[in-house]
Amino acid sequence: MKIELKKLRYVYPSGEEALKGVDLIIEGTDPVALIGQNGAGKTTVVKHLNGILRPVSGEVQINGERIETRSTAQWAKQIGYVFQNPDDQLFLESVKKEFEFGPKQIGLPAKQIKERMEWTAELVGLSEKLDMHPFDLTMAEKKFCTIGAVIMMDPDVFIFDEPTCGQDVQGNLRLHRILQTLKERGKLCITISHDMKFVADNFNRIVVMRRGEVILDGSAEEVFAQVDILNRSFVLPPPITRVAQGAGLQQTVFTTEAFMEALENERMV
User: Where would I find the ABC transporter domain in this sequence (predicted)?
Assistant: First the structure.
């Protein structure tokens, strides 16, 4: 899977220029995090990947095919989008029906839907709640319901918009397992997040946006070492990373164990 943005520009009807010529290539199956302050253009970018938004100028290509060649519904079979607010995505009277809806629309056989549902429900932690109305779920469970509904469609690319909102530690661990499982199945996951600890724990590549432009693109170690640039983007590294930087450690660390090891190494120098 290869996603390529070439000088992507987008202007909202209000006249606000949300994207200012973004160039970006994402390919393979390594999960990618998209970070930056509110209004940086993150959601605007990902809404171009399945045609929800169309460029004012520039190009979006999926495996070499321009986004304009298909409708959003057609791209949805290949690019799955999980919205930030699950209430914007849930509309049926049970979790089971939410999971069944997409596969039924594309004519998937009943046996295959059943098998896929059992696997998906287990992965997202809703095996015991398939008969519940989605609006009777907790906010975290609603999020996993929308994730499950998209997984049921088995797209090549998953876009998660702020999946950690409303999640506790166990929810974040489940998200970690979902990301790892999807990668193992050859899927590409692109995730928008303001939770920098979650980002550092789960993503080898991080793209930082500011005012409609990409200003950093690299590994977690490379990106979170750029303190001055991150400050201009109103992005703070994970707490333990900031402690290490405040202590003057040269190594960029993300865990307590790495912090203690880096501290010991500094003392030995």
Answer: 3-236
Q: Note whether 82 and 146 are within 8 A (CB).
A: yes
DSSP structural state of residue 40:
S
Model pLDDT for residues 184-207, shown as the tens digit of each residue:
999 999 999 999 999 999 999 999
Tracing tokens 């899927």 back to the chain, one arrives at 187
d(CA 170, CA 165): 13
- Domain positions in the chain: 1-78+155-234, 238-269
Q: What is the pLDDT of residue 137?
A: 95
Q: What is the pLDDT of residue 78?
A: 94
CATH number of 1-78+155-234: 3.40.50.300
DSSP notation for 202-242 = H-SEEEEEETTEEEEEEEHHHHHT-HHHHHHTT----HHHH
**Residue 265: both structure tokens together:** 């190494």
Element (H, E) at 24: strand 17-27
Residue that has been written with the tokens 């973004």 in this structure: 22
pLDDT band at 118 (very low <50, low <70, confident <90, very high): very high
Q: How many CB atoms lie within 10 A of CB 59?
A: 14
Residue 149 to residue 137: CA distance in whole angstroms: 15
pTM, to two decimals: 0.93
The per-residue pLDDT for range 127-153, each reduced to its tens digit, is: 999 999 999 999 999 999 999 999 999
* Max Cα-Cα span within the chain: 65
In SS3 terms, 106-119 reads as CCCCHHHHHHHHHH
